[in-house]
Amino acid sequence: GLDGSVAPEQVIGRGAPEEGIFTTLHALLEPDDEVVVLAPCYDSLRNVVEYLGCRVARWPLVETPEGSGGRPGECNAAWDLNLDALKRMITLRTRLVIVNFPHNPTGFLPTLDEFQAISDIAQRHNTWLFCDEMYRGLELGGTPTLISAADQYQRSIVLSGLSKTHGLPGLRSGWL
Predict the structure, then answer these.
(1) Residue 82 DSSP label
(2) What does DSSP assign to residue 163?
(3) Quick one: how far is CA 128 from the chain centroid?
(4) Which residues have C-beta within 8 Å of that of residue 37, sequence separation ≥ 6?
(5) What's the rounded Cα separation, in Å, for the pair 91 and 89?
(6) What Cα–Cα distance (Å) separates residue 66 from each residue in 63, 74, 122, 140, 144?
(7) β-sheet bridge partners, residue 34
(8) DSSP-assigned beta bridge partners for residue 175
(9) Where are the beta strands (DSSP E) in 5-151?
(10) SS3 105
């Protein structure tokens, strides 16, 4: 929870992280809902939303020339978030914002202030925040691990699993 701990009854285990995506999106979404998805992304984060008859609004990472607009010396210097674009994309029909950090495939990691801004935007619009944290713990270049969305925003759902961070691809176990 927001105090830095998640109670066992707040965790749902799945045979595979993919089941977590499927379960969450089926539970939260109705046809014609709108979903903002950070792009690029893992295909299922977008495809299941479309399958359910929802409108997908792609919120693209912004590619920046190294050293201008990025964070020089950091592994994600060539990428940035456009938080103003996120604010403009959310409508009265937006039910969910989907992000994944560390970002797959770029490795981008927002600053704590940027991540807080994403949570604040979602909260202002009373939308759910789904954060794919499959790569949490594998930050590039010694970058500190970002706070979990579960500890940042009450209406967040976090996805994780054993295959990436723990190097156990044969054990497809995951959790929300």
Answers:
(1) -
(2) T
(3) 11
(4) 45, 46, 49, 56, 57, 58, 59, 97, 98
(5) 6
(6) 9, 10, 29, 16, 21
(7) 55, 94
(8) 13, 160
(9) 13-14, 34-39, 55-60, 62-63, 79-80, 94-100, 128-132
(10) coil
Mean pLDDT for 27-55 is 95
Q: Residue 151: which of 166, 163, 133, 124 has the closest Cα?
A: 133
Bridge-based pairing of strands 34-39 and 94-100 is parallel
Main-chain dihedrals φ then ψ at residue 10, nearest 5 degrees: -95, 0
Whether the CB-CB separation of 134 and 104 falls below 8 Å is answered with yes
- Which helix (DSSP H) or strand (DSSP E) does residue 175 occupy? strand 174-175
> Is residue 2 predicted with pLDDT exceeding 70?
no
- Which two tokens mark 92? 């009265």
Return the CA Rg of the chain: 16
Can the peptide bond before residue 40 be classed as cis, meaning omega within 30 degrees of 0? yes
Structure tokens at 134: 């499959």
Is residue 79 within 8 A of residue 63, CB to CB? The reply is yes
Burial (0-12, 13-18, 19+ Cβ within 10 Å), 156: buried
Check residue 69 and give its pLDDT.
Answer: 46
Distance from CA of residue 51 to its chain's centroid?
19
Please tell me the least confidently modeled range out of 75-84, 112-121, 122-131, 134-143.
75-84
- Residue 1 scores a pLDDT above 60: no
